[in-house]
Amino acid sequence: MAKNSNLNYYKDEKKIDSSKDHSNSKCDESKGSFEEIPLKDYLKAKGKKLKIQVKEKSKTIKKKSKKLSKQIKEQAKTTAKRIKELSIETKQIIQKKHKEWKEKERMHKQSQMENEKTSVSNIEKSKTSRDSPRFCPYCGHEVTQGGKFCPNCGNSY
Ligand SMILES: [Zn+2]
Fold it and tell me: Where do the structural domains in the chain lie, given as residue ranges?
């Protein structure tokens, strides 16, 4: 029924199109009340059709926006997940670096301690060498550690 009447409206549209060069009032006058009712109905139907089109369009837009918002949500979810993963990775890297740094620091300290030990032992060695007997550079007489003058020749050493 609606399709049939729609066809009539299309016919009417053709009629109106063909009589475009004439003024509307003249058309109405010449054709009388016969044309008036279909034109009204046509406009009504056209308005209805437009309404339906608008409704459908808004429906499609709604659907599209829904889909888009879903996509955006999913994207945001994926991005959030990626960020979380990255932050975890970064944390792990920092922890690893920290461990490495600590190990390095420990090894450095150890080597420092070893160096100190060697230098201490070197000092001790030099001490013992200082403790070992010394001789006067002038006469070759054995002199004591604490003394300043050779008991043999009297020179200072
Ligand atoms: Zn001497």
Answer: 2-103
